[in-house]
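Appendix B, example 12.
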Amino acid sequence: MRFKSFTEMLSFYENQGGNSVALIYEENGEKKTMSYAELHSAVREKARELKSTGKTCLGVFCESSPECIITVFAAAETGLQLVMLDPNTSSEFIIKQIEASDTDFLWSSENELVEEFEPYLTEGVTDGGGILFFTSGTTSMSKAVVLTQESLCASAYNGSEMLPLEQSDILMCLLPLAHVFGFICSLLWGLSCGAAVALGRGPRYITEDCRYFRPTAVSLVPMLLAFFLKGQLFNDELKLILIGAGDCPDSLIDGARALGKRVCFGYGLTETSSGVAISVSGDPHAMDICPDDKITIARDGEIVIKAPTCIMKGYYKDKKSTDEVLRDGFLYTGDLGYRDENGRLHITGRKKEMLVLPSGTKIFLPEYEAKLAAALGNRELAVILIDSKPVLVIHETRRKKEEVTELLGNAMKNFSRTEQIKDIIFTDRPLPRTATGKVKRWEIQKTEEEKI
C-alpha cells in the first residue's frame, strides 16, 4: 500500500483489523506485542504531549524501542522538525549535529543523555516539518538530509512492491534507526506491509535475537551478515535477507544461500530516502529499479536518479551542497555503475573513492585497498593522498613496522610504478568507521593533514 504519512499507515491497518501485531519487543524480561490500534493510539497521545511543549525541533536519540518509534511518529504528526540522532556516535559529532539542525529539545529513554547535550540546544526553527537524517560521511563530513514522511513512506512502498511481506511475516529490526537504511528496511518496510516488526534488544543480545523472535525477514549490513554466518545465528524460519549500505562479498551471499535463505541486495542513498534498486532476479549484483525511480548513467559512468516521490528536499541550510548534487530534479549520486541488457543496475564504485594522481593515473580505492589488505594479512588499512602521493594508513603496532614494510614491498611488485605507495603511517587506534562499518576516509585524511 502507498501511504503519505506514518499515521495514515497505522490508521489503515488499524481499520483492517486493529488487533494485528505491529511491534514485538521485550520488556522486563517478558516478550510483549503492540497492535496497530495500540500503536496508533499511543502516537496520538504522544503527539498531544509534544504539541503542548511549544518547541519546534526535536532531536531523538534513536533506539530500538516502542517508545522511540512512538515519539518519532508523533513528532512527525505534529509537524515538528525531527532530527534523528545516533547515541553511539561521538559526543563531538552529536553536538555538531544538534547545533547544525536547530534542535531545541531532546528525547531519550536515558535522562543522562538528554542532560549531557541540553547545553547545546538552540532556539529552534520557524519553518520546520522535515525529518533530518545525517549522511554516513565516508568521503566527506556528514550532512543533514531533509526528508519527509511522504518521501519515507514512498521509499517503504517501493520496497514493499519489490519485496512484499505478508501480514504473517515478522521483520527483525537490528539496524540503527538513526540511519535511513535502518529506518526504512528494518522498520517502515514491515509496517507498510502490515507485518510485525520485532525490535532487537541491543548489542548484548544480538547473538540470541533471531532465535528469540523467530523472524521471517531481516535487513543487514555486510559486516553483520558475516557475523551472523560465522556464529550460525539465523533461525530456521528466516527466509529473506536484505543486504544494503555497502559492498557485500559473494562468499557471504553464497554462505547465506547455502542455508536456504533468499538473499537480495539493495542500493540507495540517504538523499533518496533509502532504496532505489533491489536485486530480485537471483543475481544480487543485478538490481531492478524501484517503481518510483528512474535511473540514467552519465557519460562518465555516474548514476543519476530522478525520483520525485523519494528525493530529499535538500541538505539542511546548505544550498551550495544541495545545488551540487540536485540539478533540474535529478540527483547526481557520485556513485558509478551501468545498466545491463535487461535494464538492471550494477554498481562499480564511487567517484570520490578514486584517487587521481598528477600523472593522470586513477586508483579505485576499494579494489586497491582489498589487494593491499590481502597482501598484508588482512590488516585494517586505508589509502589517502598526501602531497599528491598515495600514502598507506594502517592500524598496527609500531613493533611490527618492519614486518608490514617488508610485506608491502613484496606487494608493490604487482602494482605499476604510478600506483606505488610512497609512505606508511602507523596508528595504534582502530580506523574511524560509520555505524555501518565503512571507514571514514575523510576523517583520516583530515587528521593526517593537520599533522603536517
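Residues 294 and 306 are 5 Å apart (CA to CA). The chain has a mean pLDDT of 89.
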